[in-house]
Design goal:
389 residues; alpha+beta; eight-stranded mixed beta sheet; rod-shaped; binds calcium ion
Length: 389
């Protein structure tokens, strides 16, 4: 019986030792693997379980000792020995309990430190989380800025490429302009030289012009004096000529005799036709004779012509402008005029008469100073030519 109890005590010691080691390992493992709060809670639980098991063992030993004691007092010496052993075991267990209590206190203290560290870490974690969020936000903003910058860079690159192309074109234009400028400069230099030469020529010409102008003014003055002298001489010459002509005409008139078929009256000769023609044919005949259709200048001439007793054309017509009578030398009809009553009538609105634009001397009337009638120029009449001598 005693040996059996010893065996049981030894096994209990083994189990207790094993449990204590396992509890220690478990506490260490939990301390490393879990948070400080969970690991402390587990440690507390294991220590409580160990104490429970020790109490159970103590109760079991007391029951066993009571049973052994009840079964007999036979081997009292062995029982005492066994009792001592049990007492020793109990002391050992109490000692171990004290050690476990110490370990527990140490672990509780470490748990408090770990809890403090944990809280510190949690606060740091929160701060880090806050910093992380801030950084994430700033990163987002930076990403947006980066994207914007990338787009701007692309646009700038495009602008840069465009500017490079424009620069090349401008460079080409510049080279062309520089070439043209060189040519223009050459032309300009040539023109400047020519301008200097022209200026020299101009100065020479201006000087010569001044001299010529002086000569011209002198000549103009002399010319004006000569012109005045010429005009005076011309006027004197014409006057002399007119006087000579008058004298010659008077002398010739006195000396000459009329050609055959002409009659002389005053200072004129008159030709009276024997045949009849139209007014224009008659006028042409007079021109061929070196004369013209008669122009009547005075009552005496009118009376002389009336006395010839021929119904004949005279040199008066309004064929150019109806109602405006002119003599064949272009002079207009002024007084005196010798129209028959109610003439000129331009045909008197009688279609049978036609237009009446030429004047005849009608000797069938009785009054010599009222003997003119306008008649159709196409009618045939005698005619009278006059030649002033
Ligand atoms: Ca006359
Ligand atoms: Ca008329
Ligand atoms: Ca008439």
């Amino acid at each position: 019986m005693a040996s059996y109890i010893n065996k049981q005590v030894i096994e209990l010691n083994k189990v207790t030792e094993e449990n204590r080691n396992r509890a220690t390992r478990s506490v260490k493992t939990d301390t490393h693997l879990s948070g400080p709060e969970d690991s402390g809670r587990r440690l507390y639980r294991m220590v409580a379980v160990s104490f429970g098991m020790l109490c159970v063992l103590q109760v079991t030993l007391n029951i066993s000792l009571r049973l052994v004691y009840n079964r007999g007092m036979g081997d009292k010496t062995n029982v005492t020995a066994e009792k001592d052993q049990l007492q020793t075991s109990c002391n050992t267990l109490a000692k171990e309990k004290g050690q476990l209590q110490t370990s527990y206190n140490t672990l509780a203290k470490e748990k408090g430190q770990l809890q403090t560290s944990y809280n510190t870490l949690v606060e740091e974690k929160i701060q880090l989380q806050t910093s992380y969020n801030t950084l994430a936000k700033e990163k987002g903003q930076l990403q947006t800025s980066y994207n914007t910058l990338v787009e701007e860079k692309i646009q700038l690159q495009t602008s840069y490429n465009t500017l490079v192309e424009e620069k090349i074109q401008l460079q080409t234009s510049y080279n062309t302009l520089a070439k043209e400028k060189g040519q223009l400069q050459t032309s300009y230099n040539t023109l400047v030289e020519e301008k200097i030469q022209l200026q020299t020529s101009y100065n020479t010409l201006a000087k010569e012009k001044g001299q010529l102008q002086t000569s011209y003014n002198t000549l103009v003055k002399e010319k004006d004096q000569l012109q005045t002298s010429y005009n005076t001489l011309t006027e004197e010459r014409d006057q002399q000529k007119r006087e000579n002509n008058d004298l010659m005409a008077k002398f010739s008139n006195l000396k000459q005799t009329c050609p055959k078929g002409w009659q002389k009256f005053g200072s004129s000769w008159y030709f009276i036709s024997t045949e009849t023609k139209t007014w224009r044919e008659s006028s042409q005949d007079c021109l061929e004779r070196g004369a013209g259709l008669v122009i009547i200048n005075s009552d005496k001439e009118q009376e002389f012509l009336f006395g010839l007793n021929k119904r004949a054309w005279i040199g008066l017509t309004d064929s150019v402008t109806e109602g405006t009578w002119k003599w064949v030398d272009g002079t207009p009809l002024t007084t005196p005029s010798y129209w028959y009553p109610q003439q000129p009538d331009n045909g008197g609105d009688n279609p049978a008469n036609g237009e009446e634009d030429c004047v005849e001397l009608n000797t069938e009337t009785r009054l010599p100073v009222k003997a003119w009638n306008d008649q159709s120029c196409l009618d045939n009449r005698h005619w009278i030519c006059e030649k002033v001598v």
